[in-house]
Amino acid sequence: MRKQIVAGNWKMNTLLKDGMELAKAVEKMEKETRGDAVVIIAPPFTHLSKIRELIGNVKLGAQNCASEPSGAFTGEISPEMLRSTGVEYVIIGHSERRSHFHEGNDLLNRKVKLSLSTGLKPIYCCGEVLEEREAGRLFDVVREQLEVGLKGLSAADMANMVIAYEPVWAIGTGKVATPGQAQEMHGFIRGLVAEMFGQEVAQNLSVLYGGSCKPSNAAELFRQPDVDGGLIGGASLKAEDFIAIVHAI
Ligand code: 13P
C-alpha cells in the first residue's frame, strides 16, 4: 500500500517565534489524533533547526535546495546541510520556484538527483498554468516536467520520491481543481510513471494534490483513487485547518 501524505508548505510565512508555535501546535494535535497518514511541515530554512527540536511524529521538510553539493554558491543551501539539520523531505520544482526564479526541468533534475544521493526524499512538483490547460496542453506539460525532472532515476530512487500535482491556476487562488480534474491528471501521472519505471513503482508512488486545498474540499479530493494526499499552502498556516485536512484522509 502506498503512503498517504499531507505536507504543509509554509512558503515565505511566519517569523521564527510564530513558526515555532505553529509547529508545536501541529505536533500536539497530530499526536492526539494519530492516523496513518505521514504528516510533514516545510517551514522556511531559518526555522528548520529550531523546529526540529519541537516535532517528533511530524516530519520535517524544506521548500527548496541547491543543485550543487557545496562551494561558492552564495546564499544557497545544500541537500547535505538540510540533512544535517534533521530534514527528511525537500520540495523541488514548486511552481513559484519555476516562475519567479526561472528554475527549469534540467536544473530540477539535478536537485532531485543530488537530494536522493544525500538521503533526502524529494517532493517533486508539476502542474500546468491556465493557458496550457485551456490550450489542451496540460498533459504534454506535465509529461515533460516528469520525463526531464525524473531522468536517470532508478526504481530504487523512485521508492524515495513523492510527486505533487499542483495546477498553477489553483495555487493561492481559492479555485480548486474538481475531484474529476485532479483524478484525471493523477491517473495520467501514475500511468506515465508506470511507463518510465514499471507498474510496481507506479503503484507504490504517492501522488499529492496541491492548490487551494482546505478542510471543506480535502475529503472529496482524497477520495479519488490516485490522490494520495495533499501539499497544502495557505491552510497549513493554521494548525486546526491543517490537522482537519490530515483527518480528511
Ligand atoms: P495553496 O494551498 O495556498 O493554494 O498553495 C498550494 C501550494 O502551492 C502548496 O505548495
Keywords:
TIM Barrel; 8-stranded parallel beta barrel; alpha/beta; 45% helix; 8 strands; globular; binds 1,3-dihydroxyacetonephosphate; 249 residues
Could you characterize the architecture of this molecule?
It is a single chain. With 249 residues, the protein is an alpha/beta fold. It has one domain (5-248): TIM Barrel, CATH 3.20.20. It contains twelve helices and eight strands. It has an eight-stranded parallel barrel, surrounded by five helices. α1 (16-32) runs parallel beside α12 and α11 packs parallel to α12. The radius of gyration is 17 Å and the shape is globular. The two termini are 14 Å apart. The structure holds 1,3-dihydroxyacetonephosphate. Residues 9, 94, 166, 171-172, 210-213, 231-235 line the site of 1,3-dihydroxyacetonephosphate (13P).
Q: What is the correct CATH architecture?
A: Alpha-Beta Barrel
Estimated helix fraction: 40-55%
Mean pLDDT: 97
Strand content: 5-15%
